[in-house]
Amino acid sequence: MNEELSPGSAAHVVELIARLRAAHPDAHCALDYETPVQLLVATILSAQCTDERVNLTTPALFARYPTVEALAAAEPLEIEELVRPTGFYHQKTRYIRESAARLLAAYGGEVPPAMDELLTLPGVARKTANVVRGEVFGLADGITVDTHVKRLAARLGLTAETDPVKVERDLMAIIPRDSWIEIAHLLIWHGRRVCTARKPACPDCPLNDVCPSAAGQQAVEQ
DNA sequence: ATCCCGAGGG
DNA sequence: CCCTCTGGAT
Q1: pLDDT, tens digit (0-9, with 9 covering 90-100), for A175-212
Q2: Directed axis angle between helix A180-193 and helix A147-155, to 10°?
Q3: Which among A33, A97, A100, A140 could disulfide-bond with A39, CB atoms 3.0 to 4.6 Å apart, if both were Cys?
Q4: Span A64-105, pLDDT tens digits
Q5: pLDDT bracket for residue A217 (50, 70, 90)
Q6: Phi-psi region of A59 (alpha: psi -120 to 50; beta: other; left: phi over 0)
Q7: Does domain A10-27+144-221 have CATH number 1.20.1250.20?
Q8: Angstrom distance (rounded) from CA A173 to CA A176
């Protein structure tokens, strides 16, 4: 670990973002969708499921129910059958139908742009709201904290918290607001490709000299 | 056995 | 704070 860059300092954050940009210039939302409502549905389905698997299930779902009206009126058992491979299928089906119904009842069938409005949708909390707001409207009232962002923030020494809401608050305090949307994509991409949960590839990581958790780096500096 | 772009309820 | 909800991949 480079001793001149204390974890969480402004200089550390600047360095992290620059290196992650260079390593993952293609980082972007990996969920497939055509409309804001479809992104909302795909993001609800992404809970505790790989986006790859979500993308394998949504084409049939969106073909069967192309509109928010169709989703709201869908037979629960039919949606359950289509989304079962994503896990939590009973709850996710209810969230999809009830959120679609609420979009129709309160927002003219459109996805609202305000954070507090998104949070009134069943099955939508800060993670899902941050994803949808950032992707659809380019707006950020917060930072998407999924399992990757949470894990990497901890390993990089950017937070000592484990509760995602507290992790998000810590990140918001040290990351410039104009990087809030980008940093989540970068950390997610890096988490999938390099800093994986089970076997992080520290020797191949472009952050290993600015990461307090990098395996086998500290001894060299002594 | 652990992990994946979590949320709601107790 | 805790727990439950779920399936597929590794």
Answers
A1: 999 999 999 999 999 999 999 999 999 999 999 999 99
A2: 90
A3: A33
A4: 999 999 999 999 999 999 999 999 999 999 999 999 999 999
A5: low
A6: alpha
A7: no
A8: 8
Q: Which residue is nearest to nucleotide C1 (CA to C1')?
A: A163
* The model's pTM: 0.94
Please classify residue A170 by burial: count the beta carbons closer than 10 Å to its beta carbon, then call 0-12 exposed, 13-18 middle and 19+ buried: middle
Q: Does residue A204 have an active-site annotation?
A: no
Instruction: Give me Rg for the CA atoms of chain A.
Output: 19
Say how far A118 CA is from C8 C1', in Å.
30
Sign of CA dihedral A32, A36, A37, A41: positive
The boundaries of every CATH 1.10.340.30 domain in chain A are 36-137
Listed as ranges, the nucleotides of chain B within 7 A of a protein C-beta are 2-8
SS3 state of residue A165: helix
Residue A79 — φ and ψ, nearest 5°? Answer: -65, -40
CA–C1' gap, A50 and B3, in angstroms: 10
Q: Which nucleotide is nearest to A95 (CA to C1')?
A: B7
| CB contact at 8 A, A21 and A190 | no
Q: Which bases of strand C sit closer than 7 A to a protein CB? A: 1, 5-9
Residue spans in chain A of domains classed CATH 1.10.1670.10: 10-27+144-221
Specify whether domain A36-137 bears CATH 1.10.340.30. yes
Active-site position among A141, A146, A166, A204: A146
